[in-house]
Design a protein that fits this description.
mainly alpha; 2 helices; about 85% helix
Amino acid sequence: MNWLVVIFGLVGILSVVGTVQGFKERNVLSIIFNVASVVVFGGFTILTVIYQGYPPTL
């Protein structure tokens, strides 16, 4: 679970970068998909760290 949280966190961060680029290019479809990715992956990462801690308790 450790590496999964790290990977999903990186995907969430890159989705934020993609959202900023979508606003710069005024690409609506890019903004929609990147915001959805931030919500899903970022939410999973934050909730996993809150409920299991990092590193996770066994």
